Amino acid sequence: xxxxxxxxxxxxxxxxxxDRWAHGxxxxxxxxxxxxxxxxxVDLTAAARHVLGLxxxxxxxxxxxxxxxxxxxELEEEVALANIALDLLGQARSLLARAAQLDPGLRPAxxxxxxxxxxxxxxxxxxxxxxxxxxVEAPHGDFGHLVxxxxxxxxxxxxxxDRLSGSRDPVVAAVAAKAVPEVAYHRxxxxxxxxxxxxxxxxxxxxxxxxxxxxxxxxEELFATTDAERTAVADGTGVDPATTRAEFADVLSRVCDQxxxxxxxxxxxxxxxxxxxxxxxxGQHTAALRxxxxxxxxxxxxxxxxxx
Amino acid sequence: MPSAEEVMTVTDRRxxxxxxxxxxxxxxxxxxxxxxxARFERLIAEDQRIEPRDWMPEAYRATLIRQVAQHAHSExxxxxxxxxxxxxxxxxxxxxxxxxxxxxxxxxxxxxxxACETLGADRADLTEKLVTGxxxxxxxxxxxxxxxxxxxxxxxxxxxAAICNQVPLCRSSYGPYARAMIRICKEESFHQRQxxxxxxxxxxxTEEQRAQVRDAVDxxxxxxxxxxxxxxxxSPNTARSMAWRIKRxxxxxxxxxxxxxxxxxxxxxxxxxxxxxxxxxxxxxxxDHGPIDWDELSRVIxxxxxxxxxxxxxxxxxxxxxxxxxxxxxxxxAKRAARDAVGAGVAG
Lengths: 308, 348
Hints:
Order of helices and strands of chain B: HHHHHHHHHHHEEHHH
CATH architecture of chain A: Up-down Bundle
Largest sheet of chain A: none
Strand content of chain B: under 5%
Low-confidence stretches of chain A: 1-27
Structural class of chain B: mainly alpha
Order of helices and strands of chain A: HHHHHHHHHHH
Number of helices of chain A: 11
CATH class of chain A: Mainly Alpha
Structural class of chain A: mainly alpha
Helix content of chain B: 55-70%
Oligomer: heterodimer
């Protein structure tokens, strides 16, 4: 067999094995093969800002999930969490590249030209320039906290992506179409665990309920709309997160019901209520993001001229 | 080297419970057992596979459980040295590759524990033996990873050595192990390739990066050679494992093969290997290498490697911290089953 000779294995073509890797090992251009024309009449700055938020959510969440590696409660869960992290990382890469394409001004100044846009944005941006929601920032707590956060995050993100698959931006539409089945799996996985833990033992019930209570103060922000999002919606490239509230509340209440958990109160907002206020999307972050980035960016920043 | 027949004459013929709590078929008569043993020997001699339901000598079963469990443990502990760089990978492409690789290793551990369970072992029991130090894992994972170049060198040298060791196991006499190894070897060759490609890229980078690559190669070369185990003269289990076709080549044969494959790769990479005695021997048609510090291997196996305590502590903490989760999953499954039974009772 071909693998009898390790040297051959080094030089031969991937030979069909490439699709085993979430996003291949060879591709350098995150947008390769995707129609990347920009539709006419679009406010590029707003469109880029909108895409950047979606990218940063995925990047930071993927990073936090990757911290679970070698700490999961079961080997099957090691595989599943790595899989979810890989999916999100793939989404982040494509969206970061698109954001920089739409608005080259997002690329931090002074980053050497050989560094791809996705890495310039991931490794050479300061915390205040990140546009992710605060939900994804906290270091991982116990498995109950992980399940609660993943359930909330993937329920919300799936609702967003579902709407974005009809975006006028062909890249956003393509990324969303690919990501919908991925995030549907993430949501199923989290919901399955929420039910197992909620309707498991007294201890597991308590822990997942505590997890849900911990992430709940960060939920309202998910439905806040920024100016950039409003513009992107008007241009037909974006989605207004406020429109996902009803779907989110419905899914959470059904999962909590199965899990014998009391759903934390969902605001039942009507006309005239004050709208939710964006935080992370406007660069207001918790201290946890600064710590996360200090670690994530350490090697890249120590070798700005390095080749990886 | 004894033939399979010679080995069989000293085979353990005990019945009853085997090591690791392995399940046994009901007590067989002596005549049945003699016939079963004859069939086992014939299958081995004809290079056929032994399958889980086939009769097998207790010592064959025990040897396999020990070897496959040790291999599974190595995959799981082996996630740690590289996993330590996941949060600091310097490009998103490298982060994705590394995450996929570490994920593969968890998957390899799963296939191998499953193969072990076909022999009657139990994963929870094997994990308990690992975290209490009663079963071993490859001593290579007791060395630290000091820079991102280590990720590349582990792929190139450590996975490279593993491939040399493991490709012949795809023809191992025990079917489930052999089949697991085919998939594992395909993935390992990919792992090796990404490591080598990372090193090639770093060698084309800054002087500081080249220094990191050289430093990592210097640290990992000798431990990689030790991965093949003690020299043949001091490897008590080799002859029997070869007679049973669990192993196909001796430790020294595999080590030589690795050296012969790796030296040209080092030249292509532009690094020198830290062995002044390493040179081509035209007479033998192989590279000669200097003496290996077997005392170091013994020390690391005994537990005195740089990271033994840390590796086991991490695995033990994950296992202990996950206990309430596993208990919850079982409790929930039991509740569901009870509810389904009530539902079925009503329906029936």
